[in-house]
Write a structure and sequence with these properties.
about 1000 residues, alpha+beta, Alpha-Beta Plaits, Rossmann fold, 7-stranded parallel sheet, 6-stranded mixed sheet, about 25% helix, about 20% strand, globular, signal
Length: about 1000
């Protein structure tokens, strides 16, 4: 009996799951249920896998066979994937599968390509096993291609739990809980044995390239809108819209069939009050561009997939709950609303519920990572989850926006992000969108966040409904664009958790990032072949500068306007999509690394800065195959007693200034910068040839000193010759560890003053805590010569006039300030001199009245001196007890006498000693309200009663005596 058959060919990443549930498989027809009963994998020298899928019903059978990528022609690749393969066999886990469907009746049952892709993606999805960190330890190991994870597990006594998501060669292992890192211990011992015994035979542990013991940590913070300092807004925004704009909005809603009840309140989509202050999207909707065929993943605290506003666009196959290890990343905590609101901004449906998303026909998925403790391994998997179908990852979270944190993703997460831009979307690259942060009111800056200053991220700041910069949105040189969010009395109106729930209070940069992600989804809807770098180019090139009176705009080398407050401007939906239609893909990425430039000089305080230049030549860039710049990063090391007092600026050969680091008044850290990488997009499009100058300043004059150790310049951009392009290697923990082993250069540093300019000036070193500084360098900040040495700049104001003798320091300040400083010093000297004279006179008077002065010799018995002085009663009793131990009076005692007004009796020494002896300690917590405070203890009451009965004078309280010790310890420490 003959059997009909048909072949579908397609490409998919294949990562074999341990198990697959029956209900997840597609149904071919009502009489044919297909289940996977056996899955096996094999990787051989040709780098392809084998998958077997056997029948579970008698009606049909699926069999999967595989061929290497080299066995398919370009024509098939174009038809299957939309474009030719860029690089043959670029991913060993990608195979071309020939799916053959057999039916015993000989009748062919049509199975759509979409269903086939769904099955393949399902089979390829990594099975995530719940982990018990209380009982077990977990390790991630990166193995070379020749090493079997099973053999490694056997050698180390571990349990192999499977591959780590989409990270090639990375596997996760489990072991019983131990205090130490058993993998690193075994690897270290193996290396020692190889060296000492001269072992040459290969061992499974020789194939371990990297290992990391996993630890649970707090999740990153959501970019929730902080409370604004000062008076709260008493009412919401209530301006009436312009009549013509209101009519236009109604016409658009009618033409598109939008009946969602709060659509008229969604000013960010169509602003009827401040005309033009919206994302300019409605014209695209009228063209039918609504986000179809695009998918946005919300990496957050979950998504309410049962909301009537989101359920139709929810993409379940690309979603997962990494906190509770379940397939549905739905909100489970009372504050799990953040992700649902962000999802509503992107893809809330046109369905008579709440409002609409900016790309209301796009698919939306979710990875829940912000609601519980999480490991770097799980976050890395989340950032790559289903990255062939999840095109854009919207991330409205990061390190604390407290003005003092300085945090970056761990090495596994860095690898995941690089893996995504190299391999996600079948080689086009995943698009990461990050919120810039909400810490501006605490002088925070997004260059202290390793996610927002990554070259793989599009960092998005916020503006309010009036187009103004809100109090919370962080500035930095890594910010590419801004878009609309809360401020000026209003916020974003969108979907909330619940079947039919809405909110009017979504805001912060948390709301700006998903709005931008939705706009990028519109662009992908018309040009799905855009790479991750194409999207950054389009965002930069079509952004609209705003508020030219604010934000300290400077003109870049390619004629664009750039501001550290607004990036290149606000996103215009219509402009970016229209530009995308005809956009020519950029060539692959290239990069240039300078050698480590060793400085090792003290950072001057005040209006001086230390400037170091490095010259980049045309030959250097030719050798690096770099044609034009996109991103610039600077990795640097410095030590300082208070990190928040340091600022760093980078001046390009085109005299464009990047404020890499700014002063932060809340940053009291003494750790300085330890291989920290700053990033700037201000130099986009420059050629890069010439001297790049870095200026490090310490504006505060105090005891906190600093040393500039070294720095490392990296230029990233487009290749000259695409045929010579190569992939960037995965980052390692040792990339910046040993500077001595890298070709290094010691460049003389110059101390420089940076002058003022009315606009676009170079960094003004006289400012100590204001991140907004002029941005065009003057002659006083000219970069160094072609040799790489930064020449001392001439001050545009000339040397300051001074009335001081030449041997006295001027402190680098103005004459008026010098008068204040030296006047204060004179007053202090006079005061101290007067105090010394007073003490000297008091001592002479006391010595004249001392009966001992009537004798020509030192008395041997102090009791006799007491008798001559007429000491008796209580005073005599006290002296009698302690006289033997006193001996000769000290200068400290005489100083006390001067303040005690003639009393030389140490009345309360004995009482205090008795009190602490009875307590058994020198410090006791005093219960509030119990009468045990100062003046109310029973012992002190008895002393006061005795004093009244004997007529004793009230005892003197001396600062620093034992009565103060408890009070001093109870004072709250300054934080």
């Amino acid at each position: 009996m003959s059997t009909a058959k048909k072949v579908w060919e397609f490409k998919t990443p294949l990562s074999i799951a341990k198990s697959t549930r029956q209900e997840h498989l597609p149904r071919l027809n009502q009489n044919c249920d297909v289940g996977i009963t056996k899955i096996s994998t094999r990787t051989d020298n040709e780098n392809f896998d084998t998958l077997e899928v056997h029948k579970s019903a008698s009606a049909c059978c699926l069999v999967s066979t595989h061929r290497p990528l080299a066995g398919i022609d370009d024509y098939t690749r174009r038809n299957l994937h939309g474009k030719p393969e860029r690089e043959k066999n670029s991913r060993s886990h990608e195979v071309l599968q020939a799916i053959k469907l057999y039916h015993k009746t000989g009748t062919m049952k049509v199975w759509s390509a979409t269903a086939l892709l769904g099955l393949a993606a399902l089979a390829g999805a990594s099975h995530i096993v719940p982990r018990n960190y209380e009982a077990n330890d977990y390790y991630v190991l990166h193995l070379d291609a020749e090493t079997s994870p099973v053999e490694v597990a056997r050698s180390l006594g571990l349990s192999h739990e499977g591959p780590l998501g989409e990270l090639k060669g990375h596997h996760i292992f489990a072991a019983r809980k131990e205090e130490h890192d058993i993998v690193k211990r075994e690897l270290t011992q193996r290396k020692r044995r190889k060296r000492s015994l001269g072992i040459t035979e290969r061992h499974p542990l020789d194939g371990v390239l990297f290992s990391e013991k996993q630890k649970l940590r707090k999740p990153w913070e959501k970019r929730i809108l902080p409370v604004r300092p000062g008076p709260a807004h008493l009412s919401k925004y209530q301006d009436v819209g312009v009549d013509s704009a209101v009519r236009t909005q109604a016409d658009i809603a009618q033409a598109l069939g939008i009946k969602d009840p709060i659509f008229t309140e969604q000013w960010h989509l169509f602003n009827t009050v401040q005309l033009g202050h919206d994302v300019n999207v409605t014209s695209l909707w009228l063209e039918g561009i609504t986000g179809k065929n695009a998918t946005v993943a919300i990496v957050d605290d979950g998504l309410d997939m049962y909301s009537d506003d989101l359920k139709d666009n929810y993409y379940a196959a690309g979603s997962y709950d990494f906190n509770d290890k379940t397939e549905e990343p739905k909100p489970r905590l009372s504050d799990d609303r953040h992700g649902t609101r962000c999802a509503g901004e992107v893809a809330a449906g046109k369905n008579n519920v709440c409002g609409v998303g900016v790309a209301y026909d796009a698919r939306i998925s979710a990875q829940r990572i912000l609601s519980k403790l999480i490991s770097d391994a799980d976050e890395a998997v989340a950032m790559n989850y289903d990255f062939d179908h999840n095109q854009i990852y919207s991330c409205s979270w990061g390190p604390p926006d407290d003005g003092k944190s300085m945090d970056a993703p761990g090495i596994l997460i860095k690898r995941a992000m690089l893996n995504a831009v190299q391999n996600g979307r079948r080689g086009l690259g995943s698009i990461y969108v990050f919120a810039s942060g909400n810490g501006a009111m605490r002088e925070d800056n997004c260059n202290f966040d390793g996610y927002t200053n990554s070259i793989y991220s599009i960092t998005v700041g916020a503006i309010d409904r009036k187009g103004e910069h809100p109090y919370y949105s962080e500035k930095c040189s890594a910010g590419l664009v801004v878009t609309y969010s809360s401020g000026s009395g209003d916020a974003i109106h969108t979907t909330d958790v619940g079947q039919n729930s809405c909110t009017k209070d979504h805001g912060g940069t948390s709301a700006a990032a998903p709005l931008a992600a939705g706009i990028f989804a519109l662009a992908l809807g018309v040009r799905p072949d855009l790479t991750w770098r194409d999207m950054q180019y389009l965002a930069m090139d079509t952004a609209v500068p705003i508020n030219d009176h604010d934000g300290e705009w400077q003109t870049t080398a390619i004629g664009k306007k750039f501001s550290h407050t607004y990036g290149y401007g606000k996103i215009d939906s219509y402009a970016i999509v229209q530009a995308a239609k005809t956009w020519k893909n950029v060539k692959p990425q290239a990069w240039f690394y300078s050698p480590w430039i060793h400085v090792n000089q003290d950072i001057p305080q005040g209006d001086k800065g230390i400037a170091v230049g490095f010259e980049v030549t045309e030959d250097m860039l030719k050798e690096a195959n770099l044609e034009r710049i996109e991103h610039v990063t600077v990795t640097m090391n410095l030590k300082h007693g208070r990190r928040g007092e340091v600022s760093v600026d980078l001046i390009s050969p085109s005299q464009v200034v990047s404020h890499l680091s700014v002063t932060r008044q809340y940053d009291d850290s003494t750790e300085g910068y330890d291989d920290w990488t700053f990033m700037s997009v201000a130099h986009w499009g420059e050629k890069g040839v010439g001297t790049w100058t870095i200026i490090v300043k310490d504006s505060a004059i105090n005891e906190n000193k600093g040393t500039f150790t070294d720095w490392h310049l990296k230029l990233w951009g487009e290749t000259r010759d695409a045929s010579k392009a190569k992939l960037l290697p995965m980052p390692t923990e040792e990339d910046d560890n040993d500077h001595a082993n890298i070709a290094t250069t010691s460049v003389p540093a110059a101390t420089t003053s940076v002058g003022h300019a009315p606009t676009n000036a170079a960094p003004d070193a006289t400012l100590t805590d204001v991140p907004n500084r002029p941005t065009k360098p003057t002659k006083s900040a000219s970069p160094g010569s072609g040799t790489g040495e930064a020449e001392p700049a001439e001050s545009s104001a000339g040397p300051p006039s001074t009335w001081l003798p030449s041997f006295l320091p001027t402190f680098g300040v103005s004459a008026a300030t010098q008068v204040w400083i030296y006047g204060s010093l004179v007053l202090i000297v006079l005061f101290c001199s007067g105090l010394g004279v007073y003490f000297w006179l008091a001592r002479r008077k006391r010595m004249r009245q001392n009966p001992r002065n009537d004798y020509e010799f030192e008395m041997l018995r102090e009791e006799e001196a007491e008798g001559l002085a007429g000491s008796g009663g209580v005073g005599g009793a006290v002296m009698g007890e302690k006289g033997g131990a006193r001996g000769k009076r000290t200068k400290g005692g005489e100083l006390y006498d001067a303040f005690a007004g003639g009393s030389d009796d140490d009345d309360d020494d004995g009482d205090d000693d008795d009190e602490f002896d009875g307590a058994g300690a020198g410090y006791r917590d005093q219960p509030s309200g119990s009468g045990s405070g100062s003046g109310s203890s029973p012992d002190r009451g008895n002393r006061e009663k005795t004093r009244r009965d004997t007529g004793e004078e009230e005892e003197h309280h001396v600062i620093g005596d034992s009565d103060d010790s408890g009070d001093e310890e109870e004072r709250p420490l300054r934080r």
